[in-house]
Design brief:
Length: 191
């Protein structure tokens, strides 16, 4: 189930020749992505190196479109998640369920070539100058999902609320600064 407290991101998935194995990077470090654009300003997000250190991911499932029965799972070792120099790498054996075998064939045939992941944030920062949100620590990773349409539409909905709020704060701060400058000018400030 897609909820407002989870954030979804996409990544590519590849088929391995051995068995019914798929793999890819769920996240790459230090790669800014434009998540929202407002009046010509791009709002970006970046996953910081080390963001997954200490993340709760002892029971992460893989499914289709963030819904339905799991097709792989960390608890039964059909899903492996590792952190390396590039980012968070996922490797899944999809041979254990009928749905998994079907998804494997669809990935192999090129019908599905993207994935997404759902997480909650433990620590983040925002640089107003560059309009960049940094995810410094991920609290919990819920799932990785093969998706028919990449998760950026969902991500935009989730991220848009954050970035719209930042854009509105910046506009309010600019209006307040302008009003203060006008007040100083008209009521005894320097001319």
């Amino acid at each position: 189930m897609i909820t407002k407290d989870r954030i979804y991101r996409n990544f590519e998935v590849r088929v391995q020749d051995e068995g019914m194995i798929v793999e890819g990077y769920a996240a790459t470090f230090d790669q800014p992505a434009v998540m929202y654009e407002y009046e010509g300003t791009e709002y970006k997000e970046v996953i910081a190196r080390g963001a997954f250190d200490g993340t709760q991911m002892n029971d992460v499932v893989m499914n289709f479109d963030h819904q339905g029965k799991p097709i792989a799972r960390t608890k039964n070792n059909t899903l492996t998640l590792t952190i390396d120099d590039v980012g968070l790498r996922a490797r899944a054996d999809l041979s254990g369920t009928e749905a998994g075998r079907t998804i494997y064939e669809e990935i192999k045939a090129g019908y599905i070539d993207k994935m997404s992941f759902a997480f909650t944030v433990a620590d983040e920062s925002y640089d107003k100058a560059t309009h960049t949100r940094s995810i410094n620590k991920v609290k919990r990773l819920y799932d990785v999902a093969a998706v028919s349409i990449p998760a950026y539409d969902t991500t935009s909905i989730q991220a848009r609320s954050f970035f719209e709020a930042e854009a509105e704060k910046e506009k309010a701060e600019a209006r307040a600064a302008l009003e203060l400058a006008r007040a100083k000018y008209f009521y005894g400030g320097t001319k």
